[in-house]
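Sample pair:
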Amino acid sequence: MNRGIIIISETGAVIMPTAPVWMTQFEIANLFGVFSCDIRKAIRIIYKNKELSETDTMKYIKHPDGISYDVYNLEMVIAIAFRICSKESFLFRRFVTNEICATKKRNPITLFFSCGKSGNLWYS
């Protein structure tokens, strides 16, 4: 599986890979400069709150040499960034926000909000 890993340079620049982002908990912890247990806790809470779907955001990878691990996609990395408090997570959040704003300037984004029967907000 060809997977991309996000990097934050020493100057604070976020380097996005061209390959689809799929990162291990350790790689995400390294990206945000925190311990793996902090990432594990954030992931557990995100799934518990049903903010993201495990089937959509996580894959189990097994290498021919017998090593296997879970990897998480860009959507999960972004969600974790908003739960972790570190200099690196701040830089990444700012990068994501700037990218969204730049996209919005080029192509306006329209959000539609409506309330379901339960009163929850839905958007698309």
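Residues 87-106 form the longest helix (20 residues).
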